[in-house]
Amino acid sequence: MAEIENVLSRLYNVFEATKIKYVIVGGIAIIHYGHIRATQDIDIIIEDDYSKISQFLGLLKTYEFDVMMDQFQMAYKEKTNISIFDDKSFLRLDIKVADKKREYEVLNNATKQSILGKKLYIAPLEYVLIGKLVYMGNIIDIPISELLEYQDVIDFLTLYHANKKIIDTKLLLEKAKEMNLEDNLVKLLEIKFE
Prior knowledge:
Elements: H1 2-18, E1 22-25, H2 26-32, E2 41-46, H3 50-62, E3 65-66, H4 69-78, E4 82-86, E5 92-97, H5 101-108, E6 111-115, E7 118-122, H6 125-136, H7 144-147, H8 151-162, H9 169-178, H10 182-190
Parallel strand pairs: 2-5
Antiparallel strand pairs: 1-2, 3-4, 4-5, 6-7
């Protein structure tokens, strides 16, 4: 956890200096909302503002992240994730420049919360759960016994059941319906999980 705390501390400084709009998603969000598990990356969605991105990447280098500009340029052009490795630990940043409606929605709904002592923008719980549904793909024909072997399924079920009282279920259902994932959501919610 010390490595994650160190990386988040340096990221906080970069975000504060650049004023780039960002949101933390993925494993760090899962941990933040109550499911302790291992992660080797910090997933971040950033706004598509190239002047801020350029400053952001330059500051990452200053804070000892291994930024390979040619790889970033290719990922930016192809609208894919780019991995930036931390020179001080085993961790990496997986950065996605927002280009899809869903990514902008998460970015625009981010909330500033204390994550390991730093106030950072993170995806709301409902959007973390929707993200898990998206990454699972179609699970309708997969037996429950097999589903329980998937990390995304365990993450979803753990977070959902740990936070059931505070989740905006209406929003969760609405977003699942929008993305044609309603059947997946219903199947997951029927699983007895303790």
